[in-house]
Specification:
The chain is built from nine helices and eleven strands. The strands form four sheets. Strands 6, 9, 10 and 11 form a four-stranded antiparallel beta sheet that branches. Among the domains are: about 45 residues, no CATH class; about 110 residues, Tetrahydropterin Synthase, Chain A, CATH 3.30.479.30; about 80 residues. A hairpin with a 2-residue loop joins β2 and β3. The C terminus is likely disordered. By secondary structure, it is an alpha+beta fold.
């Protein structure tokens, strides 16, 4: 049935005349005090509204009577539709995004942040990719939800380690990220697990549990980046972080004892190194002191020998000038040095006619005074005079 055919009254029948509408509204509802349901529009009123809408559409396109179609109306509708279609090509790229534009599914260009325009669908399509946001993938499970299929790995010394780690990555090339890999997140996770298993398989368990974590992280990140670059995935690995690295639960206690023993060994090594450094420094100091003393003694001996040689040369010159006087002088000086600390008294006997009596103090032992602390000491009494006469030599 055409929409403008008024011959068929439709499911509601023909509309009643204007004067008879009040009588043709059907039976009235009983005026009871109960609740009333929502009132629905009657059939004739809806049909009349539909007829008025149809009449306006016919008048707009074809004028009164529905004869012909107005070209201006059709052009206006087409123009409005084309304007809406063309306006749908405007889009906004956020500061942390990069837009990838495809033409009939093929890569066309990449757009930077800002207000951009592309040919509306189905000619071109835009996919926005966050290129500055950091993404994180956990391998091996999370706290309280461990995944043994991902965390258990075989080490280089044929042990098993339960290792959980996280990978932080971001998009480096939006076009490669969109077109190269179908599911980039799954690809990054698969590459991360494979690279970590390869690195762990080359290292002993003890190194992974203690001091080798940094090396494992660096090697795993480098291997992941190399693999993803080979695929052209457009992904940059920012960091690989080992969250937990433990032996299997069955041998945790034994490995803790081994770790404690290793710490004690390191403490002992540090103490031994400290003692060694102290002893070596003391020995170096003593050696330097002895070297300086030897150098001082050498300088003293050289200078004394030089002085003695110079003195001998001077005496020799004087001896050549006056041999007798020089010999006498040398004899006297020599005897003075020899007899300086002697208790014997030598008296020249030439011209002596009677015995010479010397005082008792001459025969007292000559003791060199030694510096002692300032302590009051009572002086000893003078010894009795020696009744024996002094020895006199002619």
């Amino acid at each position: 049935m055409p929409w403008n055919d008024n011959a068929n009254p439709g499911p509601w029948g023909s509309p009643p005349p204007e004067g008879e509408r009040g009588d043709q509204r059907g039976p009235r509802r009983p005026q009871s005090g109960g609740p009333r349901g929502p009132r629905r529009p009657d059939g004739p009123e809806l049909n009349a509204a539909f007829e008025r809408l149809s009449r306006r559409i016919r008048d707009f396109f074809g004028g009164p009577g529905g004869q012909g179609v107005r070209p201006g109306a059709v052009a206006a509708v087409i123009g409005a539709g084309f304007a809406l279609w063309a306006a749908s090509g405007f889009y906004m790229v956020q500061p942390n995004e990069e837009a990838v534009v495809t033409t009939f599914g093929s890569y066309s260009r990449s757009e930077t942040p800002g207000l951009r325009y592309h040919l509306p669908a189905p000619l071109e399509h835009v996919e926005r990719v966050p290129v500055t946001s950091l993404n994180r993938i956990d391998v091996g499970g999370t706290a309280g939800a461990d995944i043994p299929e991902e965390s258990l790995m075989l080490t280089g010394d044929e042990n098993i380690v339960d290792l959980d780690f996280s990978v932080t990555w971001r998009v480096s090339d939006a076009a490669k990220y969109v077109f190269t890999v179908r599911d980039p997140e799954d690809a990054v996770k698969a590459v991360a697990e494979s690279a970590m298993r390869e690195v762990v398989g080359k290292m002993p368990l003890q190194a992974i549990l203690t001091r080798g974590r940094g090396q494992v992280q660096a090697q795993a990140a480098e291997l992941m980046q190399h693999t993803l670059d080979g695929w052209g995935a457009g992904v940059n690995i920012v960091e690989v972080q080992i969250r937990t690295a433990n032996p299997p639960q069955e041998v945790v206690a034994a490995f803790r004892e081994v770790a404690n023993a290793s710490q004690d060994a390191e403490s002992s090594i540090n103490e031994a190194n400290t003692y060694r450094n102290r002893v070596i420094n003391e020995a170096k100091g003593d050696g330097a002191r002895l070297v300086q003393l030897a150098q001082g003694y050498r300088e003293q001996s050289v200078r004394e020998a030089t002085g003695d040689a110079s003195r001998f040369n001077q005496i020799y010159g004087e001896y050549r000038s006056a041999p007798a006087v020089t010999r006498e002088r040398l004899y006297i000086e020599t005897m003075q040095r020899v007899l300086e600390k002697s208790n014997k008294v030598i008296v020249d006997g030439k011209g002596a006619s009677a015995p010479i009596i010397l005082p008792p103090d001459v025969f007292r032992p000559r003791i060199t005074a030694v510096a002692r602390p300032a302590v009051p000491v009572q002086a000893a009494p003078d010894p009795a005079p020696d009744p024996q006469p002094a020895e006199v030599r002619p």
